[in-house]
Amino acid sequence: MKELKIRPYRGEDTEQLVDLWNKSLPQDPIGLELFMRKILLDANFDPEGLLVAEYKGQPVGMMYCLVRKTPIFGLKVEEDRGWVTMFFVHPDFRRRGVATMLFERACDYFRSKGRPNVYVSPYAPNYFFPGVDMERHKEAEAFLARLGFETDSTPVSMEMFLTGFYIPDDVREVRKVREAEGYSFVIATPKLVVPALEFITANFSADWARSVREGLQHGVPLSHLLVALDNGKVIGFCMYGGYDYIQERFGPFGVDETYRGKGIGKVLLYICLEEMRKNGSHNAWFLWTGEERASGHLYKRAGFKVTRRFRIMKRAVTI
After folding, report:
1. Global pTM?
2. What is the pLDDT of residues 24-77, one digit of tens each?
3. Quick one: 292 exposed, middle or buried, by C-beta within 10 A (0-12, 13-18, 19+)?
4. 131 and 50 share a domain?
5. What domain range is 99 assigned to?
6. How many CA atoms lie within 13 A of 18 on its CB side?
7. Are 179 and 97 in contact (CB under 8 A)?
8. Which residue in 115, 181, 261, 309 has a CA-CA distance of 20 to 30 Å to 122?
């Protein structure tokens, strides 16, 4: 199309891009506030990386490219990779080369930043989905495959209804046995905040520690953070409401690997779900885990069901 051009984002595009998003992805709509928070206000936002396909003066497609210039505490800038966290084309302009042109410009962007690999799309903290939805967005998956993208992993989203939830007797028995051994499971108190954050940073993702810290900073009640202790030492944690400050969003959650196999995680999980129910939640959900990992099996046994399947995809960029 002769009148199609790819250009960087301009401030006046904002409302038009939100409208275009909702017309292009009606199953995954977005509001203006969330668009601004996760894109425009992201510490790594670069207008040159928010690519707009324009036809006769109107946006008809978008691709959002990111490289990390501001590291998350505990992480470097990850100079080996860049991310595409979202892309779409208006239905009337599909199969006309628009997405290909966007991706070609995206490669130019990543080359200019010296990033040899591009991922779709597990960028922390402001990703929208952990990859391409294998059911809802099959066309996008096929498009990326044609461009040479390969599967990196296949995470799933899960959810469970909490109506009628209660902690079963076998889990209560595990808790009783572990408590007799000196373990404890408690709602966090102020004196446990720093030890919990140090534990999370040392044993898990720096992004997890960030999400807990920022959640508490922005008013998520301390009662939403639970910890497992071995004679006073933090060995596990579980939180809800930290991601995007949505009470029914579960996680992050983890146990020191040297303590696994004792049912510590199981007890923490069930206590957390009970606390969520007590505080009025009707369901619990999270965006991704490995379905065949130990955590995935634990969630399924607790009653979580897979709601979406994603494909994280990766491709090298010739520099």
Report:
1. 0.92
2. 999 999 999 999 999 999 999 999 999 999 999 999 999 999 999 988 766 778
3. exposed
4. yes
5. 4-153+312-316
6. 15
7. no
8. 261
